[in-house]
Structures are given as structure tokens and as C-alpha cells.
């Protein structure tokens, strides 16, 4: 289904939406701009914040490796729009087999449309045509809302079979989402820990980076696990406690 997203501030709030479309589906509460450590991506974040209020470039395409926070940033942009009682649509295209291209119909009237993981539908003729038609409807609209698309690579390197679609994706403002280095990942973990109400000592953070996958989703999931274990055991996060909890 289309993932219609209510405000992260008020979970009970529903977005305004055309009657024929589906009800809201909740966004992750912890994926906001506040919880995203920017690293070298400050210009992209500024562009997304502007898109959420209908300013700046109406079309943003950004790309980067899996695990760099593409979905997090789309969720954050939707949250900004929903906090203003406006409607946003988020489509995770890596789930295209459970979605229908007809869901793109009428989306051009919304203040914000986010299409995530575009690489997933590369080579799928039905989806490529549907996206091409949607983009044309959106662009032909007098005052279009914001359109934000993410993928794993630049438009021309996606392997899209419809050349006109690839050219359309090149028309907007493009960003490469830079992956955090180890120090950036440590800062991101400390930021997330602070937002959860505890401190992550530097030595513990570096121990996690040295002993676990450096994928941010893995690191953040482990941080949540350690936070819960520390709370239950009423113990501070130390390297011995981490070793015991994670059986390292």
C-alpha cells in the first residue's frame, strides 16, 4: 500500500488525504532530522528541510550505498510535512511486489511525495512507465509540491530501460549521500544515545565499531539492545558489560 504518514509528534493525528487513498501508516518515531547525524551531508539536509516547506528545488534526487540513511531522511522529511497538518506519501519501491503502480495516480497533487529505493524497479517496464507518467503529470502541474527520490546510484547508472525516465531524473538537484567515517559513526551513536537519555562512553563506542559490522542499522539496533539491557540490569555501559550482554 501507499505508506501515508502521520505526524511523529502526535501519533493519533491523521494526514489529510484524498478519500480514495489508504489510511496513514506510522513512521518510525526515531527517524527525524534531529536524530540524523549529518556528517558531510549538511547541504542535502538543508535542501530536504526546504522541500518540506515547499521552498528550494521542487525535485531532489539523492543516492548512496545501503545503510547510509536514505530512508531515515525521507521519513524525516515526511515528518516535517505532517507536523504542519499537510499530506505526504512515502513509497518504499523495494517492496514493489506488494504495491501496485496505480498507487502513483493522483499523487502529483500532494505537497510531498517520497519515492525510496528506486533501484529496486530498474528494468521493470510496468513500474518504469508508471513513474515516467507520474513525473510528467507532476511537472505539468502548475505549482507542484516537492518530489524526493532516493536510489543506490546516479540516475544514468541505475540500469533503467526507459531512457526518458533516466533523463527526467537528471533534471532536478542531485546529491550524493556521503557515508560516515568511523568518527562520524561514533558521533551518530552518541547522538542517538543522548536522545534515548543515556551516555555512550567513547571507549565503548569504539569497541562496538571494532567488534561489530559498521553498518549503521546494525550499530543502532545494538545500541538499543544495550540500552534496554543496561536499564534492566541497572548497570552503566562499560566494555565488560557490553561483552557480557553481546557474548563477545
UniProtKB/TrEMBL annotation:
Limits of the Chromosomal replication initiator protein DnaA ATPAse domain: 32-174
Presence of the UniProt keyword Cell inner membrane in the record: no
Pfam family, one: Hda_lid
Coiled coil residues, start to end: none
Entries under SUPFAM superfamilies matching the protein: P-loop containing nucleoside triphosphate hydrolases
Family in the record: Belongs to the DnaA family.
Name of the protein described by the UniProt record: DnaA inactivator Hda
